[in-house]
Amino acid sequence: MSLGPTLDRRHLLSAGAGVAGSLASSAVAAASPVQKPRPAFHDLRDADTRLLEQVGRTGPLNLAKAYEVMQRNNLQGLVLGDPLNVFHVTGSWPFLGRTRPFYPPTTLAILTRDSKQAPGLVTSKFLYYYTFADGVPSGAQRQVFLYTDGPENPADFYPDRKEVPLDAVEIRRRDRVNEALAKNAPPVGIAPAVIAAMKAMGLWRSGRIGFDRFEIQEMCAHAEFPGQLVSGHVAMGEIRLIKSPLEIEMMRRAAVANIDAIHAAAAQIAPGATYRDLRSLFYAEASRRGNTPSMMTVDRVSNELADGVIRDGQALMVDIVSHFQSYHGDYGRTIAIGEPTAGVKRCIKASAVCWTAMSELIRPGVKFSELLAAGKAALKKSGIPTVVTVATHSVGLMHHDQPLFEQYGVSLPIDLVLEENMTLSLECVATNDTGIGGSVHYEDIMLITRDGAVPIHKVPDAVIQV
Rounded distance, CA 176 to CA 155, Å? Predict the structure, then answer.
């Protein structure tokens, strides 16, 4: 394990000069012509376009795993209103799920155990035209069921005034809506549309149906659904555990950008910078690479209301999370400002010992608890006098994305057994020891293979040297 050479450090300008520089930069940016995309990120465009077109065609879901989970849980199908689940099944993220996350769902996904039935998408005619149609190619593998919000005159729905030719957006939206309307006439209101979709997909009969929003249960109960409605949360959690080939590509894309962003951000700091400076730099660098920042812990501080000043000789752990189209990167390292203290070096070594022991044990059939025990046993055997917290969790459409056992309204963790195509975070954190000159974190994402595991991204040195 190399700590890397101590590099020449760039010092920040004073606070006053920094503000003045920011204002000057803003003025220049306002007066300057639009700059071309940076070549370093231009290379991502074609690959991103290919990934997103595939998401639009098929959705990211691992269908084979979904059928297996529904069979094992005796579910005829799943009716889903949580925006995350809608995206996972259909590849379409409900627009209002971002802007009004706690409102009743206006878009639902339906999945049946019948492999001859493509996944279903239920949404309003307006929302489909205004949002979903832009990301749904012709011939996409889904059934679309639209509804209207009230009586309407079709001639008043985005009429073509024929003053100029329709542009590409208008043509695409018109065509996608017409394709959907040709197959299913839209009723008024979401409940009749959901019921019609369930009937069309063979789910309106006796049998067990999983759901994830109480509004779905109410719709079905009001219409006297002949089957049994049960919670679908655990089933969806189990499905999300095992990634499809497309999901693995999305995870790798997210993880690489996440790592590159923190290394680029760290290269811009020096003594005198603040924790907020570092966090802002990471958020900016992640965004430049097409990721959306989620969170960042700096030197044990995750509360964004708090701040601190980075000092010479300090070592600070960083735990960073950002996502690409909802697939998350999760990475932890130690940034050393100058030469780490002996205590920090001891913690770095201890964390590496734990991480190595855990990574060498990973393979299908191993339990989470066995990984944790291996990390703790390795630390004890090493005799290094420090405390390392070892953890592991599935990463995917959420930072911690794994099923929880529901009992009496309480969600409890499950001691999961590793399976091929899981994406797993291995996390070794040394923050319990205080008075050593800093904090230490070592975390990477592993892809479970048939007979072991491989990092889903490159594995940089344990220390980011500044």
Answer: 17
